[in-house]
Design goal:
TIM Barrel; 8-stranded parallel sheet; 3-stranded antiparallel sheet
Length: 400
């Protein structure tokens, strides 16, 4: 699907002073930055949904930044998505509902994720993953958002074909669409991505897939193939985990602009929702649409970043087979990424507290037997992130 660059005029509000550089594209010289600015946005069609979105949306990680969401709206972003961590998602949804008050509902595209209990070792649903529970969570989200419907309701964190076809979830989603609570039905996947995306296509049920897609994936060729098949089948494709945040200890910072451009080189990707958390990151992300092509320096940065694991957990499950304590290591590594990569300590702590970890972690093992495909010292990372579990975030948490 070809992308289209569209120029659109907008006013910069005084509440976002200093944001002028975000929406003043170099090629748009017709107006002075800080007054009216000619803004360049790149749009793509989201599969066969009929939705047409800027390729850069906004992933909302923290409810503490309503002014950032407001600035994103003023800059032309119309596609929003929120973290699915239960406690933080609720706070985010309430904030989103307040920010969108007074705006035409059809002027924004919002997707919400519903996550039901799974066995973290197998990816298969537990008996408590019922139709009733899915519906309850969706209804709660709509109340928090002060919306009658969401544009996309996502079946969240699918890693197995069996889970993609979980009948209680599919029944709840189908009824939600018929009741007008959701316009389109989607599936998200962070690990075992090719299997989950192929399952979404084979189901003939889902209309959008939101999938981890970045150059650090060890199964990248298979991921590309699955995403191409999804797009060819008419599914909308939203890329996530494109890579933002600081690199792990001893490595150069991630070039977020280059990472976003890299994934958008694939025309089978229709949109991204990077989780920018401050005005400078927003400026970087929107600047991608000035020119989607990668220059030599950016290509070099992508190749450098692809040569190491960074903070991206492959979600392969190898660690689960070798951990005698049966810890949910991929979730612990995700929390580590939130804290040390994204500097989102509230989100990291919320995830940690949802894991129901034992009081004493990694204290009974004389040595760690966990083998990680990324080559990580897993025990060291777990020790680092567990300091946050019971910490008071009113005091500064030392993550440097």
């Amino acid at each position: 699907m070809k992308s289209e660059t569209v120029s659109r005029r907008t006013f910069i509000h005084s509440s976002v002073a200093g944001m002028a550089g975000i929406i003043c594209a170099p090629k748009a010289q017709t107006a002075r930055c800080g007054d009216k600015a000619e803004k360049v946005l790149v749009y793509r069609n989201l599969g066969k949904t009929g939705l047409r979105l800027p390729v850069i949306g906004m992933g909302i990680l923290s409810s503490a930044t309503p002014s950032l969401m407001q600035a994103a709206l003023d800059a032309g972003i119309s596609h929003f998505d929120s973290t699915a961590d239960p406690a933080q998602q609720m706070r985010n949804e309430k904030m989103i509902g307040e920010v969108l008050k007074g705006r035409r509902r059809e002027s924004v595209i919002y997707g919400t994720k519903i996550h039901l209990p799974q066995d973290y070792k197998t990816g298969i649903y537990k008996s408590s993953a019922t139709e009733k529970e899915f519906t309850r969570l969706l209804d709660a989200a709509l109340r928090n958002l002060q919306m009658d419907y969401v544009d996309i309701v996502y079946h969240h964190m699918v890693s197995r074909k069996e889970s993609a076809f979980h009948e209680p979830v599919m029944s709840a989603m189908s009824k939600a669409k018929k009741a007008g609570k959701a316009r389109f039905l989607g599936l998200t996947t962070h690990s075992n991505v090719p299997e989950a995306v192929h399952a979404a296509v084979d189901s003939g049920f889902y209309e959008v897939v939101m999938a981890a897609y970045n150059p650090r994936q060890k199964d990248l060729a298979q991921v590309k193939k699955a995403i191409a098949r999804a797009a060819a089948s008419g599914l909308g494709v939203v890329a996530i985990k494109v890579i933002r945040g600081d690199a792990d200890k001893g490595r150069q910072p991630v070039n977020a602009r280059a990472s976003l451009k890299w994934v958008l080189q694939d025309s089978n990707v229709h949109a991204t929702v990077p989780g920018f958390s401050n005005f400078e990151e927003m400026k970087v992300d929107l600047s991608v649409m000035e020119d989607l092509s990668l220059n030599e320096a950016e290509r070099s940065d992508v190749n450098r970043e692809a040569s190491g694991p960074g903070m991206f957990c492959q979600g392969c499950g190898q660690c689960l087979r070798s951990c005698s304590a049966e810890l949910p290591i991929p979730d612990l590594m995700r929390s580590y990424m939130y804290a040390f990569g994204y500097h989102q300590t509230t989100l990291a702590q919320s995830l940690l507290q949802s894991l129901e970890l034992p009081d004493h972690v990694c204290e009974d093992c004389s040595s760690c037997r966990v083998v990680c495909t990324n080559g990580w010292n897993v025990a060291e990372k777990i020790h680092d992130i567990l300091r946050l579990r019971d910490a008071s975030l009113e005091a500064e948490f030392p993550i440097a």
